[in-house]
Amino acid sequence: MSPPARPPSSPANASPAAADASVPEARPAAPTARAIVRLAVPALVVLAAEPLYVLVDTAVVGHLGRVPLAAVAVSGTVMSMAAWLGTLMAYGTTGRAARRFGAGDRASAVVEGVQTSWLALTIGVLLALFAQAGAGPLARALAGDAATADAAAGWLRIAALGAPGLLLAAAGNGWMRGVQDTRRPLLFVLGANVLSAILCPLLVFPAGWGLSGSAVANVVAQTVAGGCFLAALVSETRDLRPRPRIILDQVKLGRDLLIRGAAFQACFLSATAVASRFGVASVGAHQIVLQLWFFSALVLDAVAIAAQSLVGAALGGGDAPAARDVANRVTIAGGVAGIGFAVLTASGAGVVPGWFTPDAAVHEQAAVIWPWFVGMMPFAGVVFALDGVLIGAGDVRYLRNLTLASALLGFLPTIWLAYGLDLGLAGVWAGLALFILIRFVTTVWRWRSGRWAVLGATRTA
């Protein structure tokens, strides 16, 4: 179990890296607008780096033709399951570490990071092994034709080798956000993805590796990032032993986030499967706009990352008014950012799809999706911000329930109805819009109720 709490200035609580200027002070930041910006801006770059690389990857592969683009749409959706699992792992760790940090116990916050890293490494290795055997059946289940399925399976077998690094990086982001260190994650993630963005076009075209070059570039980025976060963890503590009791506690307390993540994955996998049935051009357009959606969502999530850390630290330190103040500020910021993104995406409707492929049929299908994409943004900005508040507060059971309801009552019925009635991509994206709208109503209600603000170094209610 965690050691007794000590004041942040206690020598016994210091780590070997504490004297390094790259490690922030041990005292939690006051939940002011400036603190939100200080945490959110580096988190914004970290969140944007991976989807920005995926957009570059999509643009490079799109110039190989329709089939490679469709293959990345299918296999990339499968790999996004690992990415979402990593995101959920990071979010759960941030909340737990932030409460310990807010209570004045940085050492226990780092312990959370060690145990999450063991869990991440184990799951990552298992995913990489599973993909070697399961890539073919998965690709055939999701793809609309044999050529796309074969190409997708080959890409997936290579790309899955980056899963251990991907999940180690997620675990590292989680505990470092919990102790309010967002500068080092910025350097680690940005550096790895810049390297991969350079490698991708070089391996695909001059080296002649084609679609496989794209997958290798993914593996390089994820492995380098995971190694950097592991090195940061070693610099913080010499005690890297796995502690099964803490790992089990993390798994138990994270089960609601995992179920919630599974609901997201069921939605996105189903959406890709339905889009594939409408033809290669449809799934290509779906891939482009879906990746733009993921990019926008993660950028809008920057204030939610700050909320997770500040809300968790405030509640861990027994300051409910400060936690509510953070919630109010990030909700407003999320809404404003969502409106800004809506204006930006609306202005790019006739230009952006051409960045990814010259195929006119794909452009036509993207135009069908675009109004839905733009219309969801203001609502999504609020939803993502409040997700951060509730995750930071540990109110994940409520998030689990509302996400399941949104998926089962909104998204999934709508997109499968779209398939049955041959409504095309408009029907698929109408399902996503309903998913966001249900979550908007229910998260705003929870925020206003105040039931999420439970005090203590650990959440017991």
UniProtKB/TrEMBL annotation:
InterPro entries, per the entry: DinF-like, MATE_fam, MdtK-like
Taxonomic classification: Bacteria, Bacillati, Actinomycetota, Actinomycetes, Micromonosporales
One family name in Pfam for this protein: MatE
Transmembrane segments: 35-56, 68-91, 116-135, 155-175, 187-209, 215-236, 257-280, 292-318, 330-356, 368-390, 402-419, 425-445
Biased composition (Low complexity): 11-24
Superkingdom to which the source organism belongs: Bacteria
Organism from which the protein derives: Paractinoplanes globisporus
Compartments it resides in: Cell membrane
Primary localisation category: membrane
Keywords assigned: Cell membrane, Membrane, Transmembrane, Transmembrane helix, Transport
Membrane topology: Multi-pass membrane protein
Family: Belongs to the multi antimicrobial extrusion (MATE) (TC 2.A.66.1) family.
Region (Disordered): 1-24
Pro residues biased stretches: 1-10
CDD domains in UniProt: MATE_DinF_like
Protein name per UniProt: MATE family efflux transporter
